[in-house]
User: Fold this.
Amino acid sequence: MTTDTLPEEVANRARWSLFMGVLTAAIGVVMIIYPLATATVSALFLGWALIIAAVAQLVFAFTSQTAGNFFLKLLLGVLYGAAGIALAFFPLAGVATLTAVLGVMLVVEAILETVIAFALPAVMGRGWFLFSALASLVLGLLILFHWPSSSAWAIGTLVGAAVLINGITRIAISSRVGREVRSLQPSA
Assistant:
């Protein structure tokens, strides 16, 4: 690759990245529109991932050097397997359980962020930690106070929002790279 083709290659990759950003953002919007389907697919994926992890733990158990390690890995394999089977074969119940766990996790996160905020000097971003803590607390309580009906929207909406934001970020970065490459190319 010569230096003449490098800007062209970077511009080409930036265009592909821009396309992928638009596609990712569109998928994120679809996920937000259909949050229960998104949550169900997420539970299925997590379930099968746990089943695979369970099999790996069981295999690793038989390579353990001590009885303690053997039984620990065996126990982990059984726990992963039970959780994976529950999620993979009963995804709607899994979505309800995961939603409750998410709500509790957000409340705990809010508490920890508040502690961190007050452990920092005021000039070190305390306000942002408190803002994040408040947002986590409100969302966590919203999920928990409306549970189990919040299962229909919470996980799917949050996963969809994360995918949408990822797509928007990719679009912004790709656009910036494309503009920078165009500004470096000599005028014809």
Q: What stands out?
A: The longest helix spans residues 154-184. Residues 6-184 form one domain. The chain has a mean pLDDT of 88. The chain has six helices and no strands.
